[in-house]
Amino acid sequence: MLKYLLALSALSLACSPAATAQRGARCVPYSALYTTMLLANGHYWHCSSPDTVERPFEPSRWGFFFGLAGAQTRHGYFGGAELEGTYRLSPAAQTGLVANVLVPQRIVSNLGVRDAAKPMLGLYTLSSRTRLFVLDNSRLRLSLLGGVGAGVATLADRAQQVADRGQEADCGCEPSTHAKTLATSVGLVAQAGSSLTYKLRSDLWLTANAYYQQWAGATRFGRQADLSPWMLSLGVTMPDHWKPAAR
């Protein structure tokens, strides 16, 4: 910023009344323009300092995971996403809050709902999960995981379309629609499995979670086995590190 102020000062001096009187009626500050170019290019500036200072990433007890999720059920394969926030309890244990979304998928069975001509099943969970580290070194982390939480399962019919809300009736366009939801089940879920992390860099890890998710409550359609998938998620982890509390 200082070099630009110096350039402006040189330009103003070249165009001052005294300089104008010596050169005539016209002000042609060739020397000021040349000085400005040199200052802008840094030829006359020797005391430069970095604008920013990069700080290395410092992991804490808090961590974060985001990845793509896949599931295998009795009615086929599902895809979605998994999101988890974690906290390091001790050098060998970690807890977290995880959310799973499996996008509704077309299935063959109507799960006992007669009105479903083209049934679609969707699964959503929010649970608390704990990891116990079996291995944790500079490159790999292997852990056993288990958790409990709440699950939501929806059964929709793609043959029955419902108009989306918030559309203008007189827009003159074809309204957008979605499959009609015929039934919703809410219950408890339990998870058990394992997790493997590869520490790619100090600030970026790759993690794969594999576990079974058991539906443990009543259902309004189908059976518990219909809503209990094998889960696999793969994504990136923000590193965490155990730091003893300061005394």
TrEMBL record:
Superkingdom of origin organism: Bacteria
Keywords carried by this UniProt record: Signal
Signal peptide: 1-21
Protein name: Outer membrane protein beta-barrel domain-containing protein
